[in-house]
Design brief:
The protein has a single domain, classed as Amidase signature (AS) enzymes (Alpha-Beta Complex). With about 475 residues, it is an alpha/beta fold. About 55% of the residues are buried. Helix 2 packs antiparallel against helix 3, helix 7 packs antiparallel against helix 15 and helix 9 packs across helix 12. The model has no long low-confidence stretch (mean pLDDT about 95). It is built from 15 helices and 11 strands. It is globular. The structure holds glutamine. The site of glutamine (GLN) has 13 residues, from loops.
Length: about 475
């Protein structure tokens, strides 16, 4: 049962084949058994999960139906959750209990979902391997010597090892799509503004977006149905009507124009990944799609532009962690300045400090034009590249990551780590929706295919992903060491 998708579990729950309490107990039991080796959860909410499950069962007995009613899920520990520790993977928030729920969290509560706990993540979502967490690295269920990807690696590992049915993540430069790719899952980063950021701890506010990490595109549609929509508490949430994202899943792909960016099939891409994507494209050819080569000429500038814009925004956002209001405070400070300095230098990890320094420098008088303004201009060019591409094609397909999951400790150079997001970061700079879908395995490790479409066209994205999954079963493959019975 635990290996099923949300859509399947939802059917089993409504047919009374299983209760939410039974299902929740099954996942909690697996968390107890496997979290020691995966480190996917920072906090497990055993008691409140069982209470929520019992409430969901009662609600169902009283005639309530909703696709997520009684579904056990996990939230990335970047979402504030009332009365539950919310750490953002950092020492500076290791003892912080949020006084309110993020909009994402409250929407799932209203839908009757069960929160099993909070998942591990790179500190303040800065990373691509989940090695920057104050709570230690997460391990990839497909091979525990390897990283699950980052920064939503705890969510990805938890879903891949069936420790929960589905999980939330956030994506500033690739943090939903890359871990989904490394763990053989389906991850969706919606358009900027599609989901409220209220109560989601800010990293880079103009890039951050929440989304689901799932076992199928159908599940991603069900999750988006609950997560999407304007929120008066977040002025950047978009006033764009929310569709029923499950409605178009079965549309025909006959005549669909798929763009293949030359720049994504060039140097740096591993041959195994390239082959896997080419084979996936054949599935689309058979479904009647046309494959067209396109150019994203400024893609090579995306990582550089991102590493000015994101740290600049992070340096401003993270100034609120000062030891005064909440979170970690150093022992016996001698004066106010000493308290600021030591609370921050003891509370933040190295990667976070690096970003604060880079960001502060890029924004400082005299350097602003040379770095920040220039990065913003590149951002515009990248958006224009996508705009012209979408004159020619409906969807853009390429690899999510240049390779499969790498070993823990393998990437010590920050620049090498930053290049992990070479195919995904442009999408955040342009505010577009993107998705990763498992399309193969190479040497026993999953490969992700990256799909991108135009602003707020999530229905199309989900349709194209779902049709692939209707015709293949890569999304059904599980990390064998953690399959039921082990
Ligand atoms: N890897 C990128 C970074 O370290 C993106 C992280 C993210 O999407 N949160 O900033």
């Amino acid at each position: 049962m635990i290996e099923k998708t949300v859509a399947e579990l939802s059917r089993s729950l409504s047919r009374r084949e299983i209760s939410s309490v039974e299902l929740t107990k099954a996942y909690l039991e697996r968390i107890n058994r496997y979290n020691g080796s995966l480190n996917a959860f920072i906090t497990v909410c055993e008691e409140s999960a069982l209470t929520q499950a019992a409430q969901a069962d009662t609600a169902r007995d009283n005639g309530q139906t909703s696709p997520l009613l009684g579904i056990p899920l996990a939230h990335k520990d970047i979402f504030c959750s009332s009365g539950v520790k919310t750490t953002c993977g950092s020492k500076i928030l290791h003892n912080f209990t949020a006084p309110y729920d993020a909009t994402v969290v409250s929407r799932f509560k209203e839908a009757g979902a069960v929160m099993l706990g909070k998942t591990n993540m790179d500190e303040f979502a800065m990373g691509s391997s989940n090695e920057t967490s104050y709570f230690g690295p997460v391990r990839n269920p497909w091979d525990t010597d390897r990283v699950p990807g980052g920064s939503s690696g705890g969510s990805a590992a938890a879903v891949a090892a069936d420790l929960c049915a589905v999980a939330t993540g956030t994506d500033t430069g690739g943090s939903i799509r890359q871990p989904a790719s490394f763990c053989g899952l389906t991850g969706l980063k919606p358009s900027y503004g599609r989901i409220s950021r209220w109560g989601m701890i800010a990293f880079a506010s103009s890039l951050d977006q929440a989304g689901p990490i799932c076992k199928s595109a159908e599940d991603a549609a069900l999750m988006l149905n609950t997560m999407a929509g304007i929120d008066t508490k977040d002025s950047t949430s978009a006033d764009v009507p929310v569709e029923d994202y499950t409605a178009e899943l079965n549309n025909s792909l006959e005549g669909l124009r798929i763009g293949i960016p030359r720049q994504h099939f060039a140097e740096g891409l591993s041959t195994g990944v390239e082959q896997a994507i080419q084979e996936a494209l054949n599935v689309y050819r058979e479904l009647g799609a046309k494959i067209i080569e396109i150019d994203l000429p400024n893609n090579h500038l995306s990582v550089s532009a991102y590493y000015v814009v994101a740290p600049a925004e992070a340096s401003a956002n993270l100034s609120r962690f000062d030891g005064v209001r909440y979170g970690y405070r150093c022992d016996s400070p001698v004066d106010l300045e000493d308290m600021y300095k030591r609370s921050r230098s003891e509370g933040f990890g190295d990667e976070v400090k690096r970003r604060i320094m880079v960001g502060t420098y890029a924004l400082s008088a005299g350097f602003y034009d040379a770095y920040y303004r220039k990065a913003q201009k590149i951002r515009r060019l990248i958006k224009q590249d996508f705009n012209s591409a979408f004159q020619q094609v409906d969807i853009i397909i390429g690899p999510t990551s240049p390779h499969t999951a790498f070993n823990l400790g393998a990437k010590t150079d920050p620049i090498a780590m930053y290049l992990e997001d070479i195919y995904t970061i442009g999408v955040n700079l342009a505010g577009l929706p993107g998705m990763s879908v498992p399309v193969s395995t190479v040497h026993g490790l999953p490969v992700g295919m990256h799909l991108v479409t135009n602003d707020f066209a999530e229905s199309r994205l989900l349709n194209v992903a779902h049709q692939f999954q209707q015709n293949t079963d890569w999304h059904r493959q599980r990390a064998t060491a953690f399959t039921e019975g082990h």
